[in-house]
Amino acid sequence: MTELSIRSADAPPPDGPEVLAAHGFGAAFGDKVVLAEVDLVLPPHTLTVLLGPVGTGKSTLLRAIAGLNDRNPRYRSWGHVDYQGQPLADDHRPALVVKRQEVVS
Predict the structure, then answer these.
(1) Of 35, 37, 56, 89, which cross-links 2 as Cys (Cβ 3.0–4.6 Å)?
(2) CA–CA separation, 55 vs 52, rounded Å?
(3) What is the number of alpha carbons within 13 Å of residue 16 lying toward its C-beta?
(4) In whole angstroms, what is the distance from residue 25 CA to residue 31 CA?
């Protein structure tokens, strides 16, 4: 598995709770672990870019957080993800993600 490194530029911390915070997040399809121990914090009023080589889990991470894998019976996830200070759930996801999920479903 390739390690995904997340860094932010030196800047004063923005005010308010994190928009998204993942701690110890992981995901698997059956016995194949595709994400492990992901820690990610997206502060408010900032632009965040997720970069990395092909196959490092960028799209997999975003799809997992968006809930797009939830209907796959082989999919499982663990860890903790908060959106705007509250646990991420089907009825508590970013608005654009919900709209995208309705189009895909």
Answers:
(1) 56
(2) 8
(3) 11
(4) 16
Long-range CB contact pairs, 45-49, < 8 A, 24+: 45/14, 45/15, 45/16, 46/8, 46/11, 46/14, 48/8
Per-residue three-class SS string for 66-82: HCCCCCCCCEEEEEEEE
* Token couple for 59: 């799209």
Task: Locate all alpha helices (DSSP H) within 2-69, ordered by sequence.
Answer: 58-66
pLDDT per residue, tens digit, the chain (105 aa), is: 555 555 555 555 556 678 899 999 999 999 999 999 999 999 988 888 889 999 999 999 988 988 888 889 999 999 999 988 888 877 776 665 555 555 555
